[in-house]
Amino acid sequence: MKRKQLVLLWVCVISVGLGANAQDEAAGAISPHPTERFTNLEERAYHPRWSPDGTWIAYTRNAGTQSSLWLQPVQGGDSVHVPVEKNGDLSFCWSPDGAHIVFDAYVNDLQPPFDLYIHTLESSQTRELLAIPGNQIHPSWSPDGEQVCYSQRELYLMPISGGQAERLTPRGEEAWHPTWSPDGTQIAYTSNRTGNEELYVITLADGHIQQLTDSPGYDDRACWSPDGSHIIFVSDRAGQGNDDLWLLSLDDGMLSQLTHGPGNETHPAWSPDGARIAFTVFEWPAADIWILALPEGIP
């Protein structure tokens, strides 16, 4: 990195009355910012993703060896099962128009390799996007709806309409968890090209790669703010033995720690209006989705 990044810890006080319930106390333990539980299930719930219009959160449920996709209304109501009829980690992404979901899944139930599939919500139809050797994982849909970026050791771009996939990152350098900038000009991702897991961003026009983080711990799962000014990510850089959410300002490199719970906070997803972050809290064997309200002015 060009200069040493400063770490700024937001210090806020949440008043908890004598009648506060356990959920209030748990929320205060996770973050100094207002936080609420979104799911409370017997199965593990993780990997939340807001619909483009902000009215739904899609997420993965897991019960033992079986995973499934679900939709839950943000304002309350019953969850809706998405019948993709596939199994696996089910890392996924909405299409920009909210009509489809692209996801990775096992080709043959519980056995690798992984492939990419597109599910159309209205018709409940699922089709295979790729049918090539290897594991294709971590799909991310471009803002213009024309391409999907995914990981197959390196990052690749694949037209939604079909055709030849194009390698995006240098051959031999592992790269994963790609995510498009809101304007579609850059892709942030994780790589261990320096021997440690750090965040990078590649500019599509010229292939220029910039390292965003530099930490003795690991940094992963970048997620852009809707205005493209910040990235939220997962890191163990606090040195407490667990994962927390951190906020990076792309303008000045300022870092802020958002969560400090006893479990692992991961899978961050920014709401379309920029006001909230949905994320997963893992406290093995449990996993649930929480929503954090950002302070005014952030981003």
Verbal overview:
With 299 residues, this protein is mainly beta. It has a single domain, classed as TolB, C-terminal domain (Neuraminidase, 6 Propeller), CATH 2.120.10.30. Helix content is 3%, strand content 47%. It has one helix spanning 22-30; strands spanning 7-8, 35-37, 44-50, 56-63, 66-73, 80-82, 92-94, 100-108, 111-120, 125-128, 137-141, 147-152, 154-159, 166-167, 175-180, 186-191, 198-203, 209-211, 219-224, 230-235, 244-249, 255-257, 264-270, 276-283, 286-293. A 5-stranded mixed sheet has the order 1-22-21-20-19, with no helix packed on it. Strands 2-25-24-23 form a 4-stranded antiparallel sheet, with helices on one face. The protein has a 4-stranded antiparallel sheet with strand order 3-4-5-6, with no helix packed on it. The radius of gyration is 19 Å and the shape is globular. Residues 1-22 have low confidence and may be disordered.
In short:
This protein is mainly beta and 299 residues long. 3% of the residues lie in helices and 47% in strands.
Would you spell out the secondary-structure blueprint of this structure?
Blueprint: E1 7-8, H1 22-30, E2 35-37, E3 44-50, E4 56-63, E5 66-73, E6 80-82, E7 92-94, E8 100-108, E9 111-120, E10 125-128, E11 137-141, E12 147-152, E13 154-159, E14 166-167, E15 175-180, E16 186-191, E17 198-203, E18 209-211, E19 219-224, E20 230-235, E21 244-249, E22 255-257, E23 264-270, E24 276-283, E25 286-293
Parallel strand pairs: 1-22
Antiparallel strand pairs: 2-25, 3-4, 4-5, 5-6, 7-8, 8-9, 9-10, 11-12, 12-13, 13-14, 15-16, 16-17, 17-18, 19-20, 20-21, 21-22, 23-24, 24-25
